[in-house]
Amino acid sequence: xxxxxxxxxxxxxxxxxxxxxxxxxxxxxxxxxxxxxxxxxxxxxxxxxxxxxxxxxxxxxxxxxxxxxxxxxxxxxxxxxxxxxxxxxxxxxxxxxxxxxxxxxxxxxxxxxxxxxxxxxxxxxxxxxxxxxxxxxxxxxxxxxxxxxxxxxxxxxxxxxxxxxxxxxxxxxxxxxxxxxxxxxxxxxxxxxxxxxxxxxxxxxxxxxxxxxxxxxxxxxxxxxxxxxxxxxxxxxxxxxxxxxxxxxxxxxxxxxxxxxxxxxxxxxxxxxxxxxxxxxxxxxxxxxxxxxxxxxxxxxxxxxxxxxxxxxxxxxxxxxxxxxxxxxxxxxxxxxxxxxxxxxxxxxxxxxxxxxxxxxxxxxxxxxxxxxxxxxxxxxxxxxxxxxxxxxxxxxxxxxxxxxxxxxxxxxxxxxxxx
Length: 420
Ligand SMILES: *[C@@H]1O[C@H](CO)[C@@H](O)[C@H](O)[C@H]1NC(C)=O
Ligand SMILES: *[C@@H]1O[C@H](CO)[C@@H](O)[C@H](O)[C@H]1NC(C)=O
Ligand SMILES: *[C@@H]1O[C@H](CO)[C@@H](O)[C@H](O)[C@H]1NC(C)=O
Prior knowledge:
By secondary structure, the chain is α/β, with parallel strands linked by helices. About 25% of the residues lie in helices and about 20% in strands. A hairpin with a 5-residue loop joins strand 13 and strand 14. Helix 3 (about 160-175) crosses helix 7 (about 400-415) and helix 4 (about 285-305) packs parallel to helix 5 (about 345-355). InterPro entries: TBL, TBL_C, TBL_N.
């Protein structure tokens, strides 16, 4: 089960009424649970066998080469006898050397995520480091990373959680740049919640870090003719977002999706699914999400040059709504000791399954389990709109920094990021 409170996003207009003005969309109402039906056992057994095979291949591959700091991650819940580190299994430990930056000194940390600037007093939440059970994430070494990323283009695609990670990465890397003015948004744009594209350039390193807002990854469209009245707009599940061609030419490409695949953001807004010319009024959201992911898989397999582009997909970012209607948001002072089931998400499961059978390598950033403990790290009422508590987004600095440390550790352990 997942939940997500879009009211946390503030006062924007419904997505589906403004399909053509990109990014104009968010809704006010809270979301419901969305329960995905369980998979049948045939698929489960098949997946398991595929997984075993994949693990065997990964093992052979890894041990025939140099030993990277972190090995590839496959499935969270499997009991692998292979003695390798699952970087996404571990715990948070106190570390006084954190945080990695001061959001008030980073022009790319949006005000809404800068909890300290918005009045949060306790700072303990900024001082936790993720410690994988059987290995260590290399210390963040900004100068080494900036050198390695010289001339590269890193692209984030997804919803506001993707934007957070984008902001976090920029702020982390800016700590290694003396002249802060040498880092700028290429169109001079300010960060807003609806903006479709933001591109930040580190001019001394010829490094670009871009963000594309594409909450569903597939294309929205207008109401088809002769559709029932309740249909206000559609999602073309078989067509990737029309700006996807702008993502191809990148060195690192990080996707997310999931938070928008809820009845309150789709059906209740009059948004239904379409495949080809056929309207799929009865299609459940789970099926639609899987279909959209398969569209993404085909797109990636046919357009991504794995020699050039390192491909990542981030799983569901745990939220911490509580109470009967999941509308209550109580940010704690310390991480919780138990995950309360939040370390599992059907969205994450679907992503992991979709990615596993791909012909191009994709690294799953499985952040669901690590986020599950961090009931202390959400924006809460320390946002730009304190009247609407937010237990979905994270304070910066905070949890998204750790996503980036893991991302960077993968990139740094890669022998060859291609030369542009
Ligand atoms: C995982 O496998 C090990 C030995 O291979 C076994 O001792 C352990 O009980 C297993 N754990 C689970 C959760 O199945
Ligand atoms: C962050 O920087 C601001 C402005 O320079 C400063 O007032 C604040 O004390 C700093 N915060 C921390 C946690 O160091
Ligand atoms: C990627 O590299 C491999 C090995 O160097 C090569 O065989 C393959 O043709 C390359 N693929 C593309 C699309 O460039």
